[in-house]
Amino acid sequence: MEVTDVVCPLCGCVCDDVVVEVEDNKVTKVKGACAVGKSKLMGHGRITSPAIRENGILKDCSYDAAIKRTAEILAAARRPLMYGWSSTVCEASKVGIELAEEIGAVIDNTASVCHGPSVLAIQDVGLPSCTLGEVKNRADLVIYWGANPAAAHGNHMKRYSYISKGYFLPEGKKEKKLAVVDVRETKSAKLADVFIRIEPGKDYLVLSALRALLLGYEDVVPEEVGGVPKKDLLELVKMMEETKFGIIFFGMGVTHSRGRHNNIVNAIQVTRAAHKHTKFNIMPMRGHYNVNGFNQVCTWETGFPYSVDLSEGYAWYNPGETSSTDLLMRGECDAALFIATDPGAHFPGESIRHLSKIPVIQIDPYANPTTEFADVVIPAAISGIEAEGTVYRMDNIPLRLRKIVDTEYMTDEAIMKGILKETRLLTLSRRL
Amino acid sequence: MAIELLIKNGVVYDPINGVNGEKKDICIRDGKVVAEVKNPTVLDAKGRVVMPGGVDVHAHIAGGKVNSGRLFRPEDGRRGSEPKTTACRACSGYSVPNTFATGYRYAKMGYTFVMEPAMPPLAARHTHEELIDTPILDNATIPLIDNNWMTMDYVKSGDIDLLAAYIAWIIKATKGYGVKVVNPGGTEAWAWAKNCDLNDAVPHFDVTPAEIVKALAEANEKFEMPHSIHVHGNMLGHPGNYEMTLDTYDLVKGVKATKDRPVMHATHTQFFAYGGTTWGDFESKAKAIADYVNNNEHVSIDLGSVILGDTTTMTADGPMEYSLHQITGRKWTNHDVELETGSGITPFLYSGKVSVHTLQWAIGMELALLIKDPWKVALTTDHPNAGPFVGYPILISMLMSKKRRDESAADMHSAIYKKAELPSIDRELDLYEIAIITRAGTAKILGLDAHGKGHLGLGADADVAIYDITPEERDAGKIQKAFLNTKYTIKGGQVVVMDGEVVAAPAGRTFFVTPECDPKLTEEMMPNLKDKFEHYYSVTFANYPVQDAYVPNPYEIKAPMRG
User: Fold this and answer.
1) Among B96, B338, B536, the residue to mutate for chain A (most A Cβ within 10 A)
2) Which domain holds residue A269?
C-alpha cells in the first residue's frame, strides 16, 4: 500500500511530501525523504520491552510495572528533572508539563544544549523571520552560516531554499545566490557562489564587520577580520544590499562557538542592518523535528520556552540556573526522566556522573547510551510512523505527523498519561 | 439528573431582551437558561449587578504571534506569576499571559467568550492548540484572508463567486469563523519591505487594497455568515489616517448584508482616528469617525482603547510593527507567512507623560462616548496592543465616571486639553450601556446572540456574571474592582469563579462556521488552489487543513449560500 503526504519525523525541515510503501504493516520503501529521514522511516533496532534495573541488570517487565515504578521514583523525588521532548509530539509534552507542575519538577528540552543561545538572543533583540515558503518563493540570496544542510538537513536546499523554484524565481537556483560562512569547506560550501572561511571562534568579529559595512562605517573595518579579507566582506555586503529578499540560516556553528548567544544577537543585528537596504530575514536551523514544538507548548503553557523550574508551584525560568546541565553539574536533582533524547551521549561527563547516582527513567523507541545507566526503560511507539501528533517545523509551522503502521508499543502521550495518573494517586495518598 | 441553579435577587442587565436593571431571578438547568427549576442550588445575588457572560469581539489570546510575544518577553512572563492551585494551573504573564492565565483572568472579569481575531491560515493548528489549552472560555478565531494570493487572483479577475468559493474553503480548512482583513495588500508588500495605501497597487499583484476590501465584503455576503468582514485597514497608527479610515468604510456602503448586521466590523478604531501630518501636529479625529458611524448603519467598530503602561504590540500588519520598532528601538520580531499574511511584534510603553500616548488614550474613550448608539461599539483594547484585557475594568470605570476621567486627565500631558475632545465630553455610560458594549452588542456583532451568547433569555447559554456592586454604585474605584473580580461567574451552568477566585476550569468550546458553497464553484476554484500548493506552498494540500483533533469541543454554525 502506498501512503502519500507522509510527514517525516527526523529533522526541523519536517518534509511533508514523503511517499512510503507499506507491506504487512512494515515500511518497505521510502520516496522523497533524505537519506537520514529514509533510514528512520525504514526502521531499525528497537527496545523490545519495558524493563526495570535490578541488581545492575535490566529485567523485562510489563508497561504497568514500569509506569508504576516511574511514578514511585517521581513522587518520592524532591528535585526531579524531566528532559528531552524534541523527538516526540506536542501532545506528549503537554502531559509532561502537567506532570512537572504536579511534582514540582524542572522541565527542559534539548534546546538548552542546542539553540538555547538563539532563544536568549531572540529575547534580547527579537527575530525578523518568515516561513520557509517565503524563502522558496522570494529569496534570491541564501546565506548558511555555521550550518551544513547538505549533511544535517538533507532536503532543506531542495525544498525550501537555494535549489527550489518559487513564484518570483521560477528558474530556481539560476536566479539565486548561495553564500556559506563556515570554519571549514563543508559539503554545502562546495555548492556556494561565495564561500567565506572564517577562523574558528571569530563569528562575532566577522558579524560585527558586516554590520559596520551595512550601516556605512567602512572606515572602521580593518583589512582582515577573523581571517577574512575585507574585500570578501565587501563583496558579501554588496550581495546583501542588492538582493530583493535575503535570508540567513544559522546553525550550531554559531550558537556553540565562542560568543554563543552574543553571536546570534549580532547575526540578528546584521539582519536588521541589511533590512535598512532591502528585505532581510534570519532563521535558526532547528535540529530535531519537534525541538521547536516543545518550546512552543512550554511557552504557551508556562510562559517560558525551556529550562522551567516548577518547584515553587509557579514557573521560574533562568537558564544558567535552571537548565538540565546546570542542575546536574550542581548535583542538585535526585531523579531524572528522559524522553525522546540521549543525554548519555550529549551531556558533559560530570553531569553523567551525577546521573549514575540517581534514579533515571528513559522513555524512547531506541536503545542508546542513556539506556546503559537507566533504572527504568520504557519503549515507545515511534511518532510519525506508529503514532500521530503535532510538531512545529523550524519556521513555526505546525504539522500533524501521520500514523502509517500499527504497533503494540504505547505512545509517548499514553505513557506520560499513565505516569501522571499513577503519580497523582501517590501524591494524593501521601497528602491524605 | 438535571443540574439546576437559581440566581436569586440579582439586578439584571440583559439588553438583548430589553431588561434594564430589573430585579429578576435566573433559572438554569443543564447549562441553559430556563423558565423554572425544581430543585436548584441557590445563589443569592443580594441586589448585586447581574449580566450575561462577557463576549470579547477582538483579543489576541492564542496563536503563533501571541506565543512569539511570550517567548521573547520573559520579563513580561514574570509580571504575572501565580502558583498552581487545586483548580488552576500555574499562571504567568501580564500583556502576554499563558493560556491558562488567559482563561482564568477573563472568567474572573465575568467574560465567557473571546474571539481570537487573527489566525494565519497556514499556522491555524497552532491557534487551535492554544485555544484547546485556554480554559473556561468559549472561543472562535478568524483566518486572515486579505493578503492571500488566491484572494488577490480573484479580486484581479473580478470573480466574486470564485472568491466566495475560496473563502468558504479556507474558513472550513482552518476551522475559522469569518474573514479577517489586516492591512490589505500592505502585508504582501511588506514581504518586499514595502507598504501600501488604500489605493496603491499591491506590488506584482495589480490590485488595490480598496478592491480587496470591497471584494471580500461582497464574497462574505454570498453566505449567511454570522459576522461581517472584520477589518484592520491600511495605515494603522499613522498621523492623518482618519480620512483613509472613512474611505475604507465607504467602500462597502453599497454592499447588502445577508443578515441583520453591518457589512464591516472596523476593529481597534482608536488607531485609525488620527489627524495631523506628523507626530508633532498629531490630534484626535475621533469626532469625524463618530459622526460617520452615527450617520451610517453598515459599520460597527471596536475601540482599541489605551491602557497606560507597558504592553506587547502584535499584529499581522508587519510594516506597522517595523515602524513602531524604528520609533522605540526596542526588540522586534517579524514573521511573514507564505502566500497569506505576515506579523510583527514589539513591546511598547504608553505613558501619560507623552503627548501622543495621552491623545491615543483619549481617542479610544472619545469613540465610546461620541458614538450615540452603543450597539455599534464594542469595548476592546485590541489586547494586548493598546493594553492588556485585564485593563477593561479601568476602562469601564472611566466610561462610567466623568470625574475619574477628569482626575486622570489632570495627571497627563496637557495636549489632552488642546488636541482632544475628551475633557469636554460629559456623557457617562450606565450599566445597561456597559452591558451592551461588553456582551450584548458584541454578541450581536459576532452573530452569537442566535447561538445563546450575550443574553439571558430562555434557551441562552447559562453564562452569567454577578458583580459585587449594586446599581447605585458611583465610586469609580469600586466599579473597577467589581469588574476585575466577579462575585460569581457561571459558565455553561457551572460556577467557575466565586469571590474572585477560580474554583473550576472546564474546557471551552470552539465555534466555527461552515460556509456552504455551491460544489460547482468549489470545483471550478480548485485547480487554481491546487496549483498554489503544487508550486508555491511549502506544505502539501493534503496536510494543510486543520484536523478534527484540534477542535475537540466543536460548535458548528452553518452558513448557507445565498441563492
Assistant:
1) B338
2) 116-284
